[in-house]
Design goal:
The protein is mainly α and 109 residues long. It has helices spanning 5-27, 31-36, 39-61, 69-83, 90-108. It starts with a helix and ends with a helix.
Length: 109
């Protein structure tokens, strides 16, 4: 049995919400922890990948409902993180998860 588009979108939105929750928990550790623990930037890279992948799927499945430019921005950010990981600026990564992700959360809620 094939999953209905609405069910699929609802599952992706739930996945996105959980991913943003996980990001918030890591951000709560603070900038100092981010700067000192090499695992945190790597975790944020992985979370950017997941958020961006979902940001590609959701608007493709329902382009009218999810037409806001923030979805394209998250998708482009994912592509940059995945393909140019060797050129990532840690401060820009921090801004992404502390500014852009909360904005995406507001749009999601």
């Amino acid at each position: 049995m094939t999953e209905a588009p609405k069910d699929r979108i609802d599952r992706w939105l739930a996945d996105l919400s959980l991913t943003l929750d996980n990001t918030e928990e890591l951000v709560a550790r603070g900038k100092e922890a981010f700067d000192q623990d090499p695992a945190l930037p790597l975790a944020f890279e992985a979370l950017c990948n997941r958020v961006g992948d979902l940001a590609k799927r959701i608007p493709a499945a329902d382009p009218v409902r999810f037409s806001d430019s923030i979805w394209r921005q998250a998708a482009r950010n994912r592509d940059f993180v995945v393909h140019h990981y060797d050129r990532l600026d840690k401060d820009a990564l921090w801004v992404t998860v502390t500014v852009s992700f909360p904005e995406l959360r507001r749009r999601l809620d």
